[in-house]
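Researcher: Here's the sequence for the chain we discussed earlier.
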Amino acid sequence: MPIFATNWQATGANRMWHGDTVVIDHTLPEHPLFSMAALARLIETLPRENYMLMHTGRVGSDKKLWIEGEIGDLSGEEVIEAIRRGNLWLLVRRVEDVSEAMSHLLEQVYDEIDSNVEGGYPTFNRISDILISSPSAQVYYHFDHNGQTLWQIHGSKRVYVYPNRPPFLTKEMLEYTALYADETSVPYEPWYDKEAKVYELKAGQMVHWPLFSPHRVENLEFSVSYTTQYYTPRIRRLAKVHAGNGLIHTRLPQLKLSDSIQGPSYAAKSLLQSGVYRLGLLDKLRQGKRATNFKLHPKDLGQIIPV
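Model: Thanks. This is the structure I predict for it:
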């Protein structure tokens, strides 16, 4: 069964993919990998490094709440029910690493994208996540350093996509996020919404936005989404130069640096980023930004226990 249900040529999606926000229909809600029973079994197999469980502020609340916890000993069905009742957000990370079937699905997704986008769209370092979230949960204003698509599987959500230019996105934000992988610390102002494109994404729809576009998400009901992420040679170079600039600015914050992805300057920053990564220093920087603060209540599903 093909992944996409949209005629790319008829809608112009094949041309718009490179620089515009695109909404495309897809068939994944019917895929057996995304049944609730299959998702429950998947949750029960997850190593700790393959999930993030977040407790968030409710949609419409002025209070920003974003703390990380653990599943504990609950069954997959109990975890899903806790999410239905609570204010939680479970991200199954790199699902292709724990499911061979999901790995094959990811390959099919990008084979179809490459064959439909005008001029082709070869990608590498592809990863995929599954997001299961409560009816009132939200994902705060942030952006990603790789190419990304968001696929709605069950339920619906409202997606705000903002321009990828100042003040919505700045060099400082690009560098900080590349360095610390701390996407939700970027500043947001309510007036930004006037400049956003807003999509009410229903099951069977996928949205793809321009690179680095900030976005935020409000759930409209219990939701299951699938996200796919990737690099192209250009995207990878940009991520390296932002991380390199960020590393330099931790020591020399006033130094003016180029974002060029060509020439000796880029080569030096790329070597710096790669060296720090291989030594594990980036992981040390990022670990200081995260902590486990709760676990799911084993009896009162939807509630959390501080730790």
